[in-house]
């Protein structure tokens, strides 16, 4: 893919930590609700794939207690706490590429990935790896965005500020597509989990329509990709500066893409 190869939102950039905090504020409550529905509890062994920040593995560690295990993996563990064992928050951290590396030693009662597979080039291999890591009867929860389902960051496009926001968002999504992101991946998850052999598959969707955390997320995202937007001719520096000022004013109602959560169970009769 040449210059368009690789993950668009590099974890090494300073804005990455701000993005992880905003994503936690927006989606952690929904994710934790799904964990509770799936019965995550004392003694469970959990693998958090593409953890990014520490909030999800830390919550799981508190849930599973000293008899459980939580492993957080990512291709870049900068914001998770670094490779090794994070004693304070009670989870292990491992540098790992879910699409290329063998699954870590398990088996696991719960495997979870949020906003991971939509960015992975070999999504099928990554999904198979996560399912292989489950014990028979174990649960898989995949949460991924579906930007094509609701493409506007300002659904109420009533003026020039909103039109500019939506145009820049379209440019951002063009950059994602050029790097192999599947912007309609979320809606496919229930079918993909069934086709992979999981039982009791269910799914739902959640997306904030406006929130201070949406403003923080948008500003950090635009700053992180502004050079790529201008280099691709998708926006000018003046337009980006104007949009960031509009976001800072608090006058925009900024939404997120719908987050599709899909879950299923590895059949008990399954053997590794």
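Q: What amino acid sequence fits the structure above?
A:
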């Amino acid at each position: 893919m040449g210059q368009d190869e690789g993950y668009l939102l590099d974890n090494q950039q300073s804005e990455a930590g701000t993005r992880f905090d905003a994503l936690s504020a927006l989606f952690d409550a929904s994710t934790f609700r799904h964990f509770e529905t799936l019965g995550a509890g004392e003694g469970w062994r959990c693998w958090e794939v593409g953890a990014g920040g520490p909030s999800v593995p830390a919550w799981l560690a508190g849930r599973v207690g000293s008899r459980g295990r939580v492993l957080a993996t990512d291709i870049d563990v900068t914001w998770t706490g670094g490779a090794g064992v994070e004693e304070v928050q009670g989870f292990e951290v491992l540098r790992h590429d879910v699409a290329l590396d063998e699954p870590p030693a398990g088996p696991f009662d719960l495997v979870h990935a949020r906003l991971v597979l939509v960015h992975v080039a070999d999504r099928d291999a990554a999904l198979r790896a996560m399912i292989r890591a489950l014990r028979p009867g174990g649960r898989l929860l995949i949460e991924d965005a579906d930007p094509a389902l609701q493409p506007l960051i300002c659904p109420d496009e009533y003026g020039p500020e909103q039109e500019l926001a939506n145009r820049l968002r379209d440019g951002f999504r063009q950059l994602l597509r050029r790097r192999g992101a599947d912007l309609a991946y979320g809606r496919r998850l229930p079918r993909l989990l069934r086709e992979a052999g999981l039982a009791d598959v269910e799914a739902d969707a959640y997306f904030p329509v406006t929130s201070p955390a949406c403003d923080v997320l948008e500003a950090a995202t635009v700053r992180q990709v502004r050079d790529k937007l201008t280099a691709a001719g998708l926006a000018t520096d003046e337009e980006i500066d104007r949009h960031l000022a509009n976001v800072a004013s608090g006058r925009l109602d900024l939404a997120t893409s719908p987050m599709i959560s899909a879950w299923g169970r590895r059949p008990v009769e399954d053997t590794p």
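Q: And what stands out in the fold?
A: The mean pLDDT is 89.
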